Queue: 4 jobs
Job 1
Amino acid sequence: MPNQHNQAQLEMLKDKLGKAKAFAIVNYQGTTVADQAKLRTALKTAGAEFVVAKNTLVGLALENQDFSESLNGMNAIVFSYDDEVAGFKQVVNFHKEVDKLEIKQGGMNDKVLSSAEIFKLSKLPSKDELIVTLIARIKGPAFGLVNVLVASQKKLVYVLKAISEKEN
């Protein structure tokens, strides 16, 4: 019979996996407590979370055998709640900075992601950046049209003014 703590941990992991839009399994061996605190802070600002749990419980929560190879050693899971790639960006940046964190695998939309795929996704712009770019592209032609219409009216006014001054 599993103990109550493990059952609570398993339920917590399943709940977080249900809420998360994406997740990554990372090996944190060699990182200091200060490194982990720095990573947790960066992840929190990005709408993500760093959770250390037993590999067996993580395997049970994932219910997917494709992750079994990654579930050995000192692992943690990074959950991205707000933006799918925000957590990946922070983990990859931390990996480049500290070079102690090993990114093993991840998951997004029921798809298993390799370490290379996580690195590629981390280079994508965030959801907010994409929305801003889209809005700017949509507004661009409208501003151009307004400028053309206003320019024609200004030119007409100048022509009429020149004609009136010429007559006087």
Job 2
Amino acid sequence: MKTTVMSPKDSHASHKNEPDNHEANSLVQRAVRQILSNIGEDANRSGLRRTPERVAAMYNELTRGYQVDPIAMVNDAIFEISYDEMVLVCEIDFYSLCEHHLLPFFGKAHVAYLPRGRVIGLSKIPRIVEMYARRLQVQERMTVQIADFLQEVLDPQGVGVVVEATHMCMAMRGVEKPNSRMITTALKGRFKSDPRTRSEFLAHIDRQRS
């Protein structure tokens, strides 16, 4: 049986009062031209002439998560099923932008939940990760947002999320440590209160790494 989801809290909604897309693109292009000029480049030379246009299109693509309606995304894919064992999707690739430097961070997300009579369509879990990754982000917040959203729309016995990522703001600038990796977790319900559930979840992830 299909279940209809009521609207989650405003924290999951896309940005309000967004500017007209054409106007926004024009503003981004103008800003990129100014940046090119300020770093000593000639924005009119052949290699850079269309760079502002390309950068504006790129930011539209990399921040498309703001435009996703989360309720429309999941409403047709939540089903009432008598199943209460762990559901885990491992190795979900993602790309995001660090909100501090506008440089990429990327890696893999592992998402699990313990159903309480309701499950979500398999493809929706990577789509949820994508929705939050395709924004200006910090990894800690993204991890929690994924867990909170699943907890809210499914009301499961618990949710576990682990995110592993390489941050270009740490690899190619600043401390310049390209082999470093950041791991964040968000645990809800039984994933937090029950050591056996948490250990099973982490053991599944470890098996994927080996």
Job 3
Amino acid sequence: MPTKAEVKQYVLERDNHRCSFCGKETKSITQIIPKCLGGRIIANNCFAVCQQCANMHSIRLQDTFKTEINNKTNRATLYTDASVRKAKHKRTKLAFIIRSNNSNKIVEKQSIKLPYHKDTTLMELKSIYLGIDRLINLGIKTAIVYSDNSAALGLITGTIVQHSKRSNNYNKILNEIVLMRKNISLKFKWIKREQNREAHYLTTNAME
């Protein structure tokens, strides 16, 4: 049985040390079917990928995940976060994590870098929007959405009234979330930042 290091070396040589998505040189590999869904670290289940593409793309067989969800509870939990870096290289980073309610294992996580934007609440709304869109695409019917941004949750649930100057910025994305809620049953809950550490790590790690 080959070791993990041997499998990695073989896969990198097989894929010419190039990311399977963008073609950039890389020293990393990932699994098609992740470990949490029963995937093994073998050559046929691995391919070369750069870190950026690993964060931006869903790296799994979609049909496999949909089958896993449909055979279980069809429920999931979504954690979202948005971080803004003002100093040095200005960056905004969004992230979301999806956990299976049946196994409590992470079945997907994504982080996305965007140009700098000073409105953290608006960025959090975008992160929530992206996470809900992904839940729907995966066939999830019921989910709990956790966020540590109380303002964003208040705007979605209607407990906070928008400031008039921000209405145009918020209305479009809030209306999209309203339309999405026709396709999925959602509950929104606030959590402390330390309880949202996994999503927060995705937005603060490698911000440069």
Job 4
Amino acid sequence: MKLISFTRGDRPGFGAVVEGGVVDLGAALDGKYADLRALLAGDALAEARAAVAQRKPDFALESVTLLPVIPEPGKIWCCGLNYHEHVQETNREVTEQPTFFLRVADSQVGHGQAIVRPRESTQLDYEAEIAVIIGKGGRRIAEADVARHIAGYACYNDGSVRDWQRHTSGCPARTSGAPAASAPGWSPPTRSPSAPA
């Protein structure tokens, strides 16, 4: 099941892509879940599948503007330097510990939307990533149980402001819209587009 978050006109919604159209899951589930994040938190994927199986598309996919899969996630954890070629191209050493950093919700854009290069940067870089959408929270999860916590996957383009990333470290901070300090995960607004889950 390919799940999306979208706007149609000025109304936000979420649904499933079916036969080139969209089943509006907000309507199909009688407003029981406010958005896709709430549906996942309610462990309601089976309920969504059942609703989709009984419906034809409510409207054409082309009639919606796609949002990030989860527009307001609790956290966006990113794993950097997670494959050998990337470690080499950044002139770093291979270690058993990858780099982790956070992104903020407003650094995401939907599929087909532009990545915005901040005017303070001349070295915006982007790379394809896979996003793991966590449906069921947890901590210190046994490896054998990991799959039960994953709701799905999404294609993602991760944008990095390399000139700021390389010359500083510390907490991300901004003043008057300009970067005051930067970290590997500095996330100016509307930088990392996602595709449907």
